[in-house]
Amino acid sequence: MRASESDTTSITGRTEATDFTTSQTFSTAPTASQFGVPNNNVGDGTTDGEGEEPVVNIDLHDSDIDRPPSPAPSIYSLTHSLREDLFTLAHGRYVNNHSEVYHLPADEEEIDRLDVQHFMFKTLIGRNYVGPVQDVLREEEGVQKDILDLGCGSAVWAVEMAQEFPHCNVVGVDLAPIQTEPPPNCRIEVDDINLGLDHFYGCFDFVHARLIASGIKDYYGLLDEISKTLRPGGMFLSVDWDFRVMDWNKTLLPAFPRNHPRHAWFPCFSRAVGMAIRARMGNIDAAVLLPRWLKGHRSFEEVDSCDLWIPSGDWFPNDTKDGLKMNAVGRLMKRDTKAFVSAGRPLLLSSGLPEAEVDELIAETIKEVDLGRRWWVRVSATWARKKAGTPAA
Ligand SMILES: C[S@@+](CC[C@H](N)C(=O)[O-])C[C@H]1O[C@@H](n2cnc3c(N)ncnc32)[C@H](O)[C@@H]1O
Question: Which Gene Ontology molecular function entries are recorded, alphabetically (predicted)?
């Protein structure tokens, strides 16, 4: 019961940006430029500064539960040493220090990318979700509704959902803290989903997981955990990439070698990233397998899914509303792809690929995106309801 207990005990009292005395909860993230600079003013005020490391306030609720400790124990002040503990510099980008699996950056540049990507999804879908979310979250007198966002990234989705559904409480969980102050009905916790969700059992009506598969060791096992966090009738929504690249006509574009007439760099980049993720035990197949997994799961019913097709650029005629929309999506995808390709550098280098090869792959892929080569990326949205007769945990 770490999260829900500490909810009431320690989330209050957030009075200034540097006061992080919350339950694994951060209202402001360290910026990449801050990481290298010792900052003794950051903390809980229990130090008089001048080279002295501020005191870290730790309440180890974690010792009571049957799982390894989280990256950030229950009650914390974010000190310089904690920042160093949470992030590490890998090939010029800051990545989280705690997950062996997820190795994309967790710095300002990446947060900007995630915000662009979020806006791209919103432009495409017109809102923040698909499926019967409004029905699940409708206001009912005397009933508290709760939303969990797994791998919340910059927390932009969690914050917007808190604004759209002010009668709901939203909890975001990520390996890295966030940069913005969430609204009062939203809180962000720093934790590793791979450690289990037992502290959340029976607490949520809607669980959302967007683009997190690459950081998940056992996605099939995670479904069990998610089902237990849901109240009966609650809903799970996954939105995740199919790591394969599709050609202009939405057929598979394989990673052909460079002397092949259909060679393109982006499929080669995607394949290399996929292999690097797999080598770290992350998942790249969840988008394809989730409908089958959920249909076969004893706790879920009403499984449904749809494909979201994202173009690599703005090649659509501008004379229809849909064309205008798809061009806007394509332009955002161009930005996202270029930033993603750069963000993949630490991951690719950590997989053992030679630096020259990685840098060529990145430079050529970015060039290809700029040149406007046409392809599609498929994102699968899959949702299901928790069977009403199933116990919460
Ligand atoms: C590609 S980002 C997507 C962020 C957000 N869901 C969105 O759609 O904007 C993936 C996020 O999942 C987080 N993540 C990956 N594996 C995780 C894990 N095991 N536990 C917690 N967070 C994880 C990463 O830190 C990162 O912020």
Answer: methyltransferase activity
- Give the residue whose CA is nearest to atom 8 of ligand 1: 210
Residues with CB under 6 A from ligand 1: 96, 99, 102, 106, 114, 117-118, 151-153, 157, 173-176, 192-194, 210-212, 215-216
The domain segmentation of the chain, as residue ranges, is 2-310+379-386
Contact present, 296 and 363 (Cβ < 8 Å): no
Q: What angle do CA 221, 235, 243 make, to 5 degrees?
A: 55
DSSP H or E run through 277: helix 265-279
Whether residue 73 is predicted with pLDDT greater than 90 in this model: the reply is no
Beta bridge partners of 90: 93
For the stretch 112-141, pLDDT in tens is 999 999 999 999 999 999 999 999 999 999
Contact 43, 79 (CB under 8 A): yes
Question: Which residues touch 78 (CB under 8 Å, ≥6 apart)?
Answer: 18, 20, 26, 30, 42, 43, 177
- Between 318 and 25, the higher pLDDT residue: 318
Percent of the chain with pLDDT over 70: 78
In degrees, to the nearest 5, what angle opens at C-alpha 42 toward C-alphas 40 and 47? 55
Amino acid at 82: L
DSSP 68-89: PPPSS-SEE---HHHHHHHEEE
Q: Residues 177, 188: contact at Cβ < 8 Å?
A: yes
Our mutation pick for probing the ligand 1 site, out of 154, 197, 212, counting the most ligand atoms within 8 A of Cβ, is 212
> If you write DSSP's letter for every residue of 134-185 in order, what string do you get?
HHHT---TT--EEEEEET-TTSHHHHHHHHH-TTEEEEEEESS--SSPPPTT
SS3 22: strand
Query: Domain 2-310+379-386 maps to which CATH number in 3.30.1330.60, 3.40.50.1000, 3.40.50.150, 3.20.20.150?
Result: 3.40.50.150
389, pLDDT greater than 80: no
Mean pLDDT within 153-173:
97
Closest to 305 (Cα-Cα) out of 286, 319, 324: 286
